[in-house]
Amino acid sequence: MNIKISGRLILGFMAMAVILAIAVGTTIWNVAEINRTSRRILSLRTPTAEASTAVVKDIYGTLATLRGYMLTGSAMYKKHRSEMWADIDATLVQMDTLSKSWDDPKDIENFKEFKRILKEFRHSQQRIEDIVGTPEEQPATQILETQAAPGVAIMMENISKMIDLELQGDVGVGGDRVQILGMMADIRGSLAMGVANIRSYLLTGEKKYAENFKTLWKKNTKRFADLSAQVTHLSAQQQDAFKIFSAEREKFVPLPAEMFAIRGSEKWNLANYMLLTETSPRALKMMDILLGKRDMQGVRHGGMQRNQQRLLSIDVARNNASVATLLNTEWAILAVGLLIAGLVSFLIIRSIVRPVNAMTVAMADLAQGNLSVDIPALNKSDEIGKMAQAVLVFKDNAIRSKEMEAEAEAQKHKTEEEKRRLMLALADDFEASIGGVVNSVSSASTEMQSSASTLSSTAEQTSRQATRVAAASEEASSNVQTVASASEELSSSISEISRQVAQSTQIAGTAVAEVDGANEKVQGLAVAAQKIGEVVALITDIADQTNLLALNATIEAARAGEAGKGFAVVASEVKNLAKATAKATEEISTQIGDIQNATQGAVEVIGSIGATINRMNEIASAISAAVEEQGAATQEIARNVERAAAGAGEVSANIAGVNHAADETGQSAEQMLSAANELSQQSESLRGEVNKFLANIRKS
């Protein structure tokens, strides 16, 4: 084969490049398809399905929180419902954007219908929330609070006024007053109990309360008719009140039946009625749009969400098919590529590797010195032939180099003989000139070592003597310092005692002033206790008068007979209260007497304490004067001791200087001795090195 190695390699690489291009192109096309489907799944199908699911969850959530608010009235449910509607608004904005990419016109139309129903659904929920907890929520209760209750209040006010006038004696002429009073009381009682049963029925819906009202209202109607027949026996004020009562009663008569009818209907709770008839049906419609309508078995079919999930499944299946196709194609391309790579490798090994291996063996033989080896491939015209020509040149050069090495070896032997002769002559000259100098240095270092030892011994003895003197001086200085410190502490203690005594004198004076103030306050307490006693006496007189009045009232009530029984009970309670007041007042008087006695005793004790504190003040003043004299004497002692301590310290400092100088002398001597020893060692080492140098020179 006459093609060069570079040509063969290029052809092999081109074959591999073609296989690689086919593989990459197929991969790019399939990956692009997978990428388009994946983007559609990630940016359209999945967000649409997730948004639909979120809307469904939030719709159910708003219904749940609305019911929670209707049941409890808690603002927490309002807040949660508001947050869910905010989530729904955000989700709708996302779905509006996504709907622009939908490819099913039916889904787009259903989404528009969904938004319309969702708006009505939200408005319905807001209406329910607005009326929850208000009278409008329960129309029957609203009638009770706005129409019936105000009229009942007016009726109760006027019937009570008629009863009060009857009890006060402001009555008309003739008639059985007891019977008339009983009619009024029955009318008021049956009216009050009837209204209570109306409230109970509106609250619970139990029929028994409605039946109770009807029974009570029959009684009220009968007694009202009886009282109407006795109008001529009423006073003018009672007749005016009866007219107002009758007018309000006439307005009230039709209201209970109307309230009972509303309470028994589906609209008795308007919020619940709206939830069942408006809000919930709209939620079901939206579920039908999103999730599909239910069949006979209750299973939903169709719907925006299910349709998007179906499209999502189609895209996922398409994506999986593309991935499978890509994998199969890659496996086929891999098999073809391996086959072509094997063929190219075989051709390269046969036409390139074998000649190169033969050339390698020849070059290895040349490297080991076998100059008779034959160089292969000298007849080739490719790169291996050129390599063989170059190796042949290396062989020729190696043969010429071997001949030149033999000539160089003979010249080297002659040169070494001449060098040995010159080195022996040089060693003799060096020994003659350097040997005397080394001997002189060794002798001088020995004499210097002896002198340094003597000087070091003398310095050490001087240092020991100075150390003994310094120790004695330090001990004397320490003793003087101890005495000085003790004197200073004694002086400080006396000063502190003087200060404490002065402070004690000041505190005693303050205590005397405070005792005088306390005496004045206790005297004021005694005066206040005396005034409280006077007030208690006044309360006692009032209680006695109240007791007399209660007794008189009891007598008058007894005279009135049956009509005065209630008043007699009140009079009896007032009498008992007056007795209790008198008893409590007596106990207060006893306690005040004890307070007055205790106060007088406190005045006497405080006076005694004041006298004692004055005596303590005088004693403290005497102690303070004595302590000041001791302080002055102690300060004089301290000053003298300090001067003695200063002298001892100066002596100690001078001795320390002597000791330091002796130490420095010793150190210098030791350094000198060390230098002498080192010099001696170095001179001996120099002698050995010179001998070794001369021996090496003579051997070379």
Record keyword descriptors for this entry:
700 residues, Four Helix Bundle (Hemerythrin (Met), subunit A), Helix Hairpins, transducer, mainly alpha, 3 domains, 2 strands, single chain, two-stranded antiparallel sheet, 12 helices
Q: How would you describe this structure to a colleague?
A:
Helices cover 89% and strands 1% of the residues. The protein is mostly helical and 700 residues long. It has three domains: 5-132 and 290-340, Four Helix Bundle (Hemerythrin (Met), subunit A), CATH 1.20.120; 139-267, Four Helix Bundle (Hemerythrin (Met), subunit A), CATH 1.20.120; 393-699, Orthogonal Bundle (Helix Hairpins), CATH 1.10.287.950. Strands 1-2 form a two-stranded antiparallel ribbon. Helix 11 runs antiparallel to helix 12. The two termini are 65 Å apart.
Brief sketch in words of this structure:
With 700 residues, the chain is mostly helical. Helix content is 89%, strand content 1%.
Distance between the termini: 65 Å
Largest sheet: 2 strands, antiparallel
**Uncertain ranges:** none
Tally of alpha and pi helices: 12
Shape: flat
Over the alpha carbons, how many angstroms does the gyration radius reach? 65 Å
Q: What's the CATH superfamily of the largest domain, by name?
A: Methyl-accepting chemotaxis protein
Query: What is the structural class?
Result: mainly alpha
Question: What integer is the average pLDDT?
Answer: 74
H/E element order: HHHHHHHHHEEHHH
Q: Percent helix among the residues? A: over 70%
- What fraction strand? under 5%
* CATH topology label of the largest domain: Helix Hairpins
Instruction: Please write the CATH class name of the largest domain.
Output: Mainly Alpha
CATH architectural designation of the largest domain:
Orthogonal Bundle
Total discrete domains: 3
**Could you give the count of β-strands?**
2
Task: State the strand order across the main sheet.
Answer: 1-2
Keywords: Coiled coil, Membrane, Transducer, Transmembrane, Transmembrane helix
GO cellular component, one term: membrane
Organism: Varunaivibrio sulfuroxidans
Family: Belongs to the methyl-accepting chemotaxis (MCP) protein family.
